[in-house]
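Input record (Table S2, row 244):
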Amino acid sequence: RDIVFLEEIDSTNNVAKQLAAQGAAEGTVVVAEEQGKGRGRLERPYFCPKGKGIWFSVILRPQFLPREAPKCTFLAAVAVAMAMERFGLRAEIKWPNDILHEGRKLTGILTEMSAELDGINYIVIGTGINVNIAAEEFPEDIRDKATSLSQMKGEPLPRIAVFQAVLEAMDELWALLEREGFAPIVERWRKYAVTLGQEVHVIGAAKKETFDGRAVDIDEEGALLVETEEGMRRVLAGDVSIRP
Ligand code: BTN
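Output record (biotin complex):
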């Protein structure tokens, strides 16, 4: 496969989008040692220190509708969780795509796409995995919300081996998605899910509307189903926190 390696870049998602627009092949990976302007969801910055994580983006060209794009994000989250298992680490996935350990974030995923009404030109899945970052190296404002694989394991991890395991898991899941559809991905996702069964507070992405309820499941498009006093609500995008 094509792997584009960059020493330093603003954001691998930006490079991947440019390459995709120029016709780069499906499966092309862009990875950087350091990102000056790592981007998170909802326009948030993402902390990507040099040589301490796996900051990468993958180009996909799926044959499905734009509203099915979240399937790719779920696939990426499950791939990271599967790779962690190979290193003896248990991942927890918070809907839709954050990977946590004991409530602290280890990995974030940012999916961006270019699409027409009837089809997708390309999808870029950007994944940032905190590998060897000590607690005190995180900026103060995220120190008690973030963690890393090395903190979980109690020793540094080989970044290249972790990266290979993640890419292998992504390939495996991608083949599964093409063969059997989204259901088996969701089934795997559920094994790691920490959101389901919990009382949650939802902040909708579009309207900034908020509500409380109980997260019961995700549907065939990856939307979170939340049982509220007014009935079942489907959450396609937004922020969900587990209420204490
Ligand atoms: C989030 O948790 O809000 C998503 C974080 C996504 C970070 C990754 S790192 C590689 C890729 N390039 C970016 O600028 N962002 C993603």
